[in-house]
Design a protein that fits this description.
Layout lengths: L9 E7 L5 E8 L3 E3 L3 E9 L25 E8 L7 H11 L19 E9 L2 E4 L4 E4 L4 E5 L4 E3 L6 E9 L5
Antiparallel strand pairs: 1-2, 3-4, 4-5, 5-11, 6-9, 6-11, 7-8, 7-10
Length: about 180
Amino acid sequence: MDERREVRARRVVMGLDAQGRSTVVQDGYTETRLVTPAWTLNHLWESDRVPNDVMAESTLTGSAVILPPPCGYKYMVTTYHPDSSWDYDEGYGDALAAGGASESLVRGDIPGLHATDTVDIVTLISGELWAVSETGETLLRPGDTFVQRGTKHTWQNRSDRDAVAVAIMIGARRTA
């Protein structure tokens, strides 16, 4: 696989030692990853409920599932590869399926359009990323934050280099 798809995210976790003092309890690259032609997801932390005890361990498993638990959250670093480097029209659904989110795909005129029962807060770190909705599109640049509230959307990287974003996905429910 292409070297750029092997983007790794380091996770450093602070906790308490046996005497109750703050200390680093974990330091290493996350092993919970999803590598597809579309993106490389590095899951960094997850909780299965909110609020949670501040010293609760992450509930991440070895399986890289895109969506957070229904009442929890998931924090991740995602590298979006240029759309020209893979088959965007057919591959987006495959990438969602690889992460257990194939049910979120909305078939129609806009390839990759999907909706999840989450509130997502996404901040672009590098590159350019297009947030595409049913009615338009918005270009995101480094430092821009996008709040996605369970609506139909897709992400497009129309440039010739990777775009990197950090995101927290918070499990939510639809009331209407």
